[in-house]
Amino acid sequence: MKKVLSGMRPTGRLHLGHYFGVIKNWLKLQEEHQCKFFIADWHALTNKYKETENLRENIRQMIIDWLSCGIDPEKATLFIQSGVKEHAELSLLFSMITPKSWLELNPSYKDLKFNLYYQYLKDFLAGKQIKIVQTPPPQPYEEALENQQESRNQKYLRNT
Description:
Strand content: 5-15%
Largest sheet: 3 strands, parallel
């Protein structure tokens, strides 16, 4: 059985583009392969480093959306990137052996690099200081589901 690793950055609410571009494929993959799907919260900080106030809620909502679309934790492993320290260790090792010229060929890297340069220049010209705010660790998905169910129950009780 083949292994699949894929992830999404929690930069905002999911939309139809996520469903048709990624989730729909994940639904097929989880039936045929050993899948690990992760929330790339550290990757989200590469271009949303100044907008961390919604990161925890975005992670929570992303897990709920995945489960609502049919991603099954019985068939695929779901995890949050920052919860696996080996992810950062492996990234460090890869960054030591990957030539920069290989990175320059990657369209995602080129796009991110352009956007970061643009943001730095914009901030510099506006006289803004760069400030990085640390967010509290995200909830495990079981906890997020319990909280979602509790809020639904409370809404139901208020409406009856």
